[in-house]
Amino acid sequence: MTTPTAEKTVTTAEKTATDRAVTDRAAAADKTATERTGARTEEAAGVISGARERIDALDDRIIGLVQERMAVSAVIQQARIESGGRRVNLSREMEVLAHYSDALGKPGTALAMTLLELCRGRV
Ligand SMILES: O=C(O)C(=O)C[C@]1(C(=O)O)C=C[C@@H](O)C=C1
């Protein structure tokens, strides 16, 4: 019998990224560098393909973090509602918006609004 601790735990995100890389390579096999990436040389296409894999892995992590944020936000909202308070706390939302806009400018505000929309009202 194998001991669970001796095996590497493969996360859903890792499995998805690996599966996607295999599928992408098979689909790209017959295509030119330009068709695959928009680049005009194989060298540039290689750089782009490697960087795209990193972006896909980053996006998997970002999605996981967003899902984690949603779960933590639900804990806060549930505690507030159960205590007799309101679901939404606008002054805190202003702090979150300022945090993102200070770091990322106007698009940061839009990103924070989308995050709040995802997190609000799920309890
Ligand atoms: O910090 C809170 O009080 C929350 O309820 C969390 C949160 C958020 O997701 O950031 C969600 C809803 C509120 O309107 C404000 C902020």
Biggest sheet details: none
Low-confidence stretches: 1-7
Strand runs, count: 0
Structural class: mainly alpha
Number of domains: 1
Mind telling me the CATH class? Answer: Mainly Alpha
Task: State which percent range the strand residues make up.
Answer: under 5%
Helical proportion, percent range: over 70%
* Mean pLDDT over the full residue set: 88
From the 3D structure, determine the CATH topology.
Answer: Chorismate Mutase Domain, subunit A
Distance separating the two termini: 42 Å
Query: What's the assembly state of these chains?
Result: single chain
Cα-atom radius of gyration: 21 Å
Count of individual helical segments: 5
Give the topology string: H per helix, E per strand.
HHHHH
| Small ligands present | prephenic acid
CATH superfamily placement? Chorismate mutase
**Name given to the CATH architecture:** Up-down Bundle
Basic shape: elongated
GO molecular function, one term: chorismate mutase activity
EC number: 5.4.99.5
Organism: Streptomyces heilongjiangensis
Pfam families: CM_2
